[in-house]
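In the design runs reported in the main text, the only information available to the sequence generator was the tokenized backbone. The following block is the verbatim input for one such run; it is reproduced so that readers can re-run the procedure and compare outputs position by position.
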């Protein structure tokens, strides 16, 4: 069914949705779930994290339903110059009827950056390989386009500011698909509005890279997407609304005060939310010098002050109930963002058996979620303790450290002055050889492999070892329990549609 698209020459003046589904994990907030949410009048948000890894793996699983190839055909129709490289990508990764269950996935090229020559001045501009640029654009285009197919509802995409290297191409792919909202968290995102304006006009856009070991005389480092070098052109496309994910009034005020960074609105996320969270205001450390994550009332955002900024905002973190939605509206919020209850619904991208176990443990009050420092980013990360996952100490210790997806690496200057990459979750000897501190590796785990496993796309090593999953959820399971209690006997999960209908009572 073709898209029913609004006229791109006029501003979209439709009111903002009251309910937003969170952009969770790696492909947990998948296009199938987001499409249903959007068709019901809420804002369905897809996760843009690691789609350039997810899509080749789905192609190797046979592309069930042919959705990826159909979406790539649509991108070729809109941008014919991408047709040949997209055909090569399908030829490289697609396996009719899917790969053997015990065979590993073919790897995607590492996102190593190359310097763009021809610039004067101290600043330097960098880009990934042409193949990876096209793959990242296409995967994000496809995820948004599939979520938007056949209806006029709003669709959003969520990115992590910490995942820097693919972000410019991912953002461009989503914009080419007509994404309505872009949500960015896990770091301050002041550059995003300017990037969206440029990319909507097929103009180059740059994102500052954080590079350890730089000197002031070297200038800044930027990762840059150049649509013209890919042959992308044509009339301008719609510029999305940008929602900055914040946890404090200070960050919200700083972004709103500068016209260049001013977002359309905010998602105000409390520490109860799953995934990455802002560090607590007061740091505590154990006897080994490792940070202990412990939140207090001091870490709650000043909602009244944020409301005073005059921009739309949504509250997130244990707001998935009619009562909490009414509370949010009473505080001046436009609505709420929901995560955990959506992640446990039958249409999320979580691997079905893993989702069933998590939901059953939550129903029995056995599911414990803790704030940890497991993430290589240095941000606190909520982990659900489920046997057989990375949360199990025996599983964690039994996993060989491998860094082969590399999305959460940090950039640094090597002794010879080039750009290097390291990750606290890689082998300790490799990390310290690159100048990293050994103490920063303690307790760190590979979120890249773990989150891919949680969505049913686990890598299988040459020796048959299957990468274990890691599951992130928020603290609040009350709505999931309530929805489950309404199910007929024998039914093991509730639908995302039932969740949206329940929340609407609060509006």
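Verbatim output:
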């Amino acid at each position: 069914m073709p898209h029913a698209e609004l006229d791109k020459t006029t501003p979209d003046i439709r009111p903002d949705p009251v309910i937003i589904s969170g952009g969770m994990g790696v492909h947990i907030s998948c296009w199938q779930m987001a499409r249903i949410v959007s068709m019901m009048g809420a804002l369905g948000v897809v996760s843009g994290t690691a789609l350039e890894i997810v899509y080749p793996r789905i192609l190797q699983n046979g592309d069930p339903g042919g959705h990826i190839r159909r979406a790539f055909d649509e991108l070729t129709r809109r941008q014919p110059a991408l047709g040949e490289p997209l055909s090569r990508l399908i030829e490289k990764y697609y396996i009719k009827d899917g790969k053997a269950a015990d065979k590993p996935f073919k790897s995607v090229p590492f996102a190593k950056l190359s310097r763009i020559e021809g610039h004067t001045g101290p600043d330097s501009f960098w880009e990934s390989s042409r193949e990876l640029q096209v793959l990242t654009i296409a995967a994000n285009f496809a995820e948004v386009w599939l979520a938007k197919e056949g209806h006029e509802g709003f669709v959003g995409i969520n990115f992590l500011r910490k995942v820097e290297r693919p972000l410019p191409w991912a953002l461009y792919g989503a914009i080419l698909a007509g994404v309505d909202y872009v949500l960015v968290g896990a770091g301050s995102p002041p550059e995003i509005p300017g990037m969206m304006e440029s990319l909507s006009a097929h103009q180059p856009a740059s994102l500052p890279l954080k590079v350890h070991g730089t000197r002031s005389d070297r200038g800044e480092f930027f990762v840059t997407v150049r649509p013209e070098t890919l042959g992308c052109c044509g009339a301008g496309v719609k510029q999305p609304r940008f929602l900055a994910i914040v946890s404090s009034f200070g960050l919200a005020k700083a972004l709103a005060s500068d016209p260049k960074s001013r977002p359309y609105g905010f998602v105000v996320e409390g520490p109860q939310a799953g995934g990455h969270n802002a560090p607590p205001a007061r740091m505590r450390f154990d006897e080994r010098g490792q940070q202990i994550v412990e939140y207090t009332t001091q870490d709650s955002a000043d909602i009244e002050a944020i409301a005073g900024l005059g921009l739309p905002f949504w509250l997130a973190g244990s707001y998935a109930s009619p009562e909490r939605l009414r509370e949010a509206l009473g505080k001046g919020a436009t609505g709420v963002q929901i995560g955990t209850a959506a992640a446990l619904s039958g249409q999320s991208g979580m691997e079905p058996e893993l989702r069933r176990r998590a939901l059953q443990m939550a129903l029995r009050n056995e599911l414990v979620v803790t704030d940890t420092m497991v993430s290589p980013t240095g941000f606190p990360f909520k982990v659900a303790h489920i046997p057989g996952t990375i949360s199990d100490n025996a599983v964690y210790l039994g996993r060989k450290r491998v860094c082969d997806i590399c999305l959460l690496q940090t950039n640094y200057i090597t002794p010879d002055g080039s750009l290097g990459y390291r990750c606290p979750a890689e082998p300790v000897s490799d990390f310290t050889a690159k100048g990293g501190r050994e103490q920063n590796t303690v307790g760190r785990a590979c979120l890249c492999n773990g989150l891919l496993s949680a969505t049913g796309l686990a890598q299988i090593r040459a020796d048959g070892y299957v990468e274990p999953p890691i599951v992130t959820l928020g603290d609040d399971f009350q709505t999931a329990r309530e929805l489950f209690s309404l199910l007929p006997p024998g039914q093991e999960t509730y639908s995302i549609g039932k969740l949206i209908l329940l929340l609407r009572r609060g509006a």
